Protein: DUF3515 family protein
Organism: Ornithinimicrobium kibberense
Amino acid sequence: MHRRRVLTVLPALAVLPLLAGCGEQPVRAAPFDRSDSPECRRVAAHWPGTVAGLEPRVTAVQSVGVAAWGDPPVVARCGKNPPGPTTDPCIDVSGVDWVATELEDGTMFTTFGRDPALEVLVPSEHGTAPLLLPAFEEAARQVPQDQGRCVAVDDADG
């Protein structure tokens, strides 16, 4: 009888490596140096459950300051050095200032006036990228905006 149990368990164990290869691969994203700072731990406690209907993804890093959703993944990272003055567009989303930087394959949004900054990378496949930012409002608010506000280039000239 003991032999029979072993034989039924072995085929089940042989299937485990096959099942492990069926899921999505973890998202690779390098954490910033301050990604596990106390500030970023507060941010990470408020990562959204979903982003515009996109489900969370497992990341390949052991840092709470990095998270991802969907495929291709929207990636958020906390701990970035805050941007200085820029001519890149700056948008206010519910009181959170974001600097938008166009990339070859999408848009990078970085909080402005918050240290450490939060970065959200949105692949171009997800359409109108700023529409995903409200999901990150609560996370971004965990770092006070005490480093100034964005000023539109037109406002600065006039």
Notes: The helical segments are 2-20, 38-44, 137-140, 153-157.
